[in-house]
Amino acid sequence: MMNIKKYLDSTYLKLPSQSNLTEEQNFEEARKITEEAINNHFYLVMIRPNYVKRIKEIITKFGSEVKVGTVIGFHEGTYSIKDKLTEAKKAIEDGVDELDYVVNYEAFKKGEIEIVKKEFIEGTTLGLNKGKVVKWIIEIAALSDEQIQTICTYFSSWAQENFKPIDFQNIFVKSSTGFYKTEDGKPNGATFHAIEIMLKYSKPLQVKAAGGVRTYDEAVKMIEMGVKRIGTSSAKALSENKSTNSTY
Ligand SMILES: O=C[C@H](O)COP(=O)(O)O
């Protein structure tokens, strides 16, 4: 059995309104997955920006090596570049280790490539200069295969033009937010088909599969394909080789 724990970004991104909880009860859910990540040695916990400071303190208090990641511009990605950078800077001040930006994929689909290029370069530069890992969520369920190929190709070439080869291990293209609303029945998260395209065209960057990964076997297959990180709200079940139906 493969030990998948070091690939897992254990995720809790619901807002209180999405889980019918008070703010403190919602934070409690984030705290629970953090303790679970610490006890099970997962790689990272992925939580909303306003929880970063307190979650980092908990991890530090435990003396654990679990990293803290947060989402920027979540979940539609349409925030301005300025707002994304402001949110990212605050998360860095609060002690975050990894920044998962949502790409302005609506701008990309409208052909406004300069917006996407600017946010990719500025957002990545901010993170790398502070020693952070940076990921760009492209929201594959909103894109055609051709669009996935194109955006991954852009990221690959912008990265090679603007950053050093040593940085490529710290820049990821990530599949999904897990929150995108699709037509009935269509998956809103990572599919093997889309991951294959991402792996092929994002090189030399890394790929993170997130959204709808619900079984150990799916996770292992993606890792064997070349994915370097799995984002999932079912980390514990996956690590124990149990499948789950839990969804956002
Ligand atoms: O970053 C997004 C989540 O990791 C994916 O969510 P999910 O596992 O609940 O579908």
TrEMBL record:
It comes from the Bacteria. GO terms for cellular component: cytoplasm. The keyword Cytoplasm applies. InterPro entries: Aldolase_TIM (IPR013785), DeoC (IPR011343), DeoC/FbaB/LacD_aldolase (IPR002915). Its EC number is 4.1.2.4. Keywords: Cytoplasm, Schiff base. One of its GO terms (biological process) is carbohydrate catabolic process. The keyword Lipid biosynthesis does not apply. GO terms for molecular function: deoxyribose-phosphate aldolase activity. Gene3D superfamilies: Aldolase class I. NCBIfam families: deoC (TIGR00126). This is Deoxyribose-phosphate aldolase.
